[in-house]
Amino acid sequence: MVARAARATDLADLDGAITDCFACPRLVDWREEVARTRRAAFRDQDYWGRPVPGFGAPDNRAGRGGAGPPATGPGPASEARIAILGLAPAAHGGNRTGRVFTGDRSGDVLFAALHRAGLANQPTSVAADDGLTLAGVRIFAAVRCAPPDNKPTPAERDTCAPWVHREVALIRPTLRVVVALGAFAWAAWWPVLRQVYGVRPPSPRPVFGHGAHWSGSAAPDLLGCYHVSQQNTFTGRLTTQMLDDVFARAKQLAGVD
Ligand code: SF4
């Protein structure tokens, strides 16, 4: 799996390899069990039940649903200048629809914010073939399979890391800013620095917080953002304004209009 990730020639090749990964027995069992049993509200749907690859610029290709068009012609909008790094797919969201942050309440909040920021062509994300395209943004998770209780183990995070490393390597020429959604994603970024950029992570590690900003000369800027989970948005820990401020800052740092 490590070797397969390293030799992925482009994002489409990487996506194909990710969706065929069975490296974590616990997560494979869980993603497939959820897909078999299904939630009552989605009983008539055919769950994806596999790893969920990244989505967005430059190809807007979903793991399920095929290739979409670039958001615009050549320029910053069709380049992955901003990456959004999440935790893992939701059992009845990405694990159901086959596209990251698609079909759940977290995705509703995230894509509405991206649309307000001018980074998405529509405010909703309900299915892999719903016409959504992102401009200047690519989204992927630190762990590509839905974990029980949304809690991957450290070992599963480390096992899945080569997929993140390769995805970042493939968009490295255009990538300027990474928005880490939550402390788990924030922590998952530091090994990328070493593996992809050959940069020694800062020590001690900068502490995660909403609006936290780390800047390194030979790597993308890192911005912290509270996760768009219902736990944060329903309680007011993460407000619409806080989310908008982070994406405004990301656009500014990335040179995306
Ligand atoms: S979590 Fe990552 S490494 Fe583990 S099975 Fe899923 S895609 Fe493979």
UniProtKB/TrEMBL annotation:
Protein's UniProt name: Type-5 uracil-DNA glycosylase
Gene3D superfamilies: Uracil-DNA glycosylase-like domain
Record bears the keyword Amino-acid biosynthesis: no
Region (Disordered): 52-76
Source organism per UniProt: Micromonospora humidisoli
Boundaries of every Uracil-DNA glycosylase-like domain copy: 73-247
Swiss-Prot/TrEMBL keywords: 4Fe-4S, DNA damage, DNA repair, Hydrolase, Iron, Iron-sulfur, Metal-binding
The keyword Transmembrane is annotated on this UniProt entry: no
